[in-house]
Design a protein that fits this description.
The complex is a heterodimer of chains A (480) and B (226). Chain A is of the alpha/beta class and 480 residues long. In chain A, 50% of the residues lie in helices and 11% in strands. In chain A, the strands form three sheets. Chain A has a six-stranded parallel β-sheet, sandwiched between helices. A four-stranded mixed β-sheet of chain A has the order 8-5-6-9. A two-stranded antiparallel ribbon of chain A has the order 11-12. Chain A is globular and about 85 Å long. In chain B, 30% of the residues lie in helices and 23% in strands. In chain B, the strands form three sheets. Chain B has a six-stranded parallel β-sheet with strand order 1-12-7-4-2-3, sandwiched between helices. In chain B, strand 10 and strand 11 form a beta hairpin. The model of chain B has no long low-confidence stretch (mean pLDDT 96). Classes of the chains: A alpha/beta (480), B alpha/beta (226). Chains A and B meet through helix 2, helix 3, helix 4, strand 1 and helix 8 of A and helix 1, helix 2, helix 6, strand 9 and strand 10 of B. Strand 9 of chain A pairs antiparallel with strand 9 of chain B, so a sheet runs across the interface.
Chain lengths: 480, 226
Amino acid sequence: MSNPIPSGHEPQCHDFQAGAKKALDNKVLQALLERTLKSGFQQRRLNAKARLPEYDQLRDQARDLKNHVLDNLDVYLQRFETELTKAGGFVHWAKDAAHAREIILKICQDVGAKTVSKGKSMIGEEIALNDFLDANGVVPIETDLGEYIIQLRHELPSHIIAPAFHLSKEQVGETFKEHHTHLNAERDLSEPSVLLGEARAQLRDKFLRADVGITGANILIAETGTAMIVTNEGNGDLTQSLPPVHIALTSIEKVVPTLEDATLILRLLARTATGQEQTVYNTFFTGPKRQGDLDGPQAFHMVLLDNGRTELLASEFRDVLRCIRCGACINHCPVYAVTSGHAYGWVYPGPIGSVLSPHFVGLDEAHVLPSASTLCGRCEEVCPVHIPLPDLLRHWRTRGFAAKKSSKMQRVGLWLWAQLAKRPGLYHAVMGLGVSGLKLMGGNRGAFKTLLGAGGWTKTRDLPTPQGGTFQARYRKGER
Amino acid sequence: MSKARTEIFARLKSVLDLKQDQSTRVQNAEQRIGAAAPNLIPARGLSEGLTQAIMFEEEAKFAQAEVRKLANLEAVSDIVRDTCQEAQTTALKVAPHPELQAMDWHSLNVEFGPGAGSDLVGLSRAYAGVAETGTLVMVSGPTSPSTLNFLPDVHIVVIHTEDIVANYEQVWAKLRQDAGADKPVMPRTVNWITGPSRTADIEQTLLLGAHGPRKLIILLIDAKNP
């Protein structure tokens, strides 16, 4: 992939197993995940769904809308560009991450910017924008509370809508004490509200002084050349209105035809993501400040990123381009629920990350991620635009197997299994032998505590001794 | 035309042409945009008459906004004065809307204009309200600065019941109508506001007043049904 990743941002997807083990051994993290996922995101989504009987119909329509957009992507992008240009905005096309970084740096340098305030943007994470700007003399300040915390800690987000999901309030307090050194070191930071107050006070001044504001965009509207963001904090909204220059950064598949189509997505997004009826702030912006306006930026730039999405469009992964980045698949994944986000080794975690990362960072690096799933199907079940995530994970497994990315042992094992599975007679014979053998070895014991060659299983649980014959044999004998 | 643009569109065309030729795609797009047809509007977005204002109030409260119903604009300045007193300030930032400019602001230091970092109390006038989720719609312009929606600690918004609509689609229709044939439909900024600012970024604990207002007070002017 022609996606030069700056140093310090090398993906660690190949290390999923080590990352998962680290997460499992982290008691603070496990307690947080246990407490926040089920009663938080999952329950709140269910409550919101119960209050909207048409929820599932809206999902079908949203899927159809996104499919229509993908089938007509070029013409909607052209219309968006025409309308935004008419409104006085500049449109920049970026072919990959490096190109997008260069475009943004140049806009900042042209206006002599020293600091930029940033609204939360996953595309910003995808192109590793912050460190690049910093290294080139432009200081970026994340303004979303979660992003601000992980920026101080030099970490990747562990969740696409809750970047500091992996941290306890104690850890946040320690981080603030380490970085806000001008404040009394003995102050009490045990309450989340005090932490918020401190961050708000720190950031207010930075909002007001920033030379450039950079936000993402959740949706682009072709009809009017409008881009929009959703925030609960009001940070992105200040970022797009206070500094004299506003840069919005997003990827090309975010466009929809009309304001009505944006509305369809906005009826689903908050309910699915956080269980709110609506996000607190939905801010729509069209070009720069108009004549007579009392505030708003003098100049507006839209950076539209491809980064291989046109390749995805032509591939078996096309459906993933419907994603509206709500995070529901992450919130409902039983693997994420114990590993958290950092184990996935790059900016997008969970099922959506396991589909996106192999594309962005390559199969060499990320071939284990599609296997970090039980294919239980909950992600697809909760997806507001019906992305068949388990199918897409299987497609990556197929590609990985064909490209010989997994270990030799694994491939030989799969090959052997295939030989058996393709020959029913042989399969039944081998299974019958196995069952009788285990029964004989087990004797009167109800279960094996250890078994040669099955250490992976018996390390954490007993293996029950088989009772009777195989299912097939018993079925044939009339036991049903 | 930049090289990247040419490349992106060439790739898109080569992929999309496989299914439909470009002239069909242009037709598809023009049709959809021209029709601006609503998608499914849920039943809760189809309230009528009196129930619109009731639903707006309920939903806004559900999103933790404070709603006060007033028979006319006369009581607005007193309520704002009380709010300022509570916030221990005499300074008030007001959007330069004629309706708000005409009010009696004695005993307060009133300034008309955009928001500032030090604002404690701000007063604006809404363009519309959406009943289905209790959402305020604010549009930027000479009488309505966008920054005032976010910078004050307490944000007070005046809205008239006749400006409350059932659903978001009716807001777009209103904007299209106001723009007419020769003005752009969208002002520079349109803010939908549903409740006061919040965050759950620390251990998923809900806290109000992240970067925007800690408190949102909606003054609902209902002249017909006091």
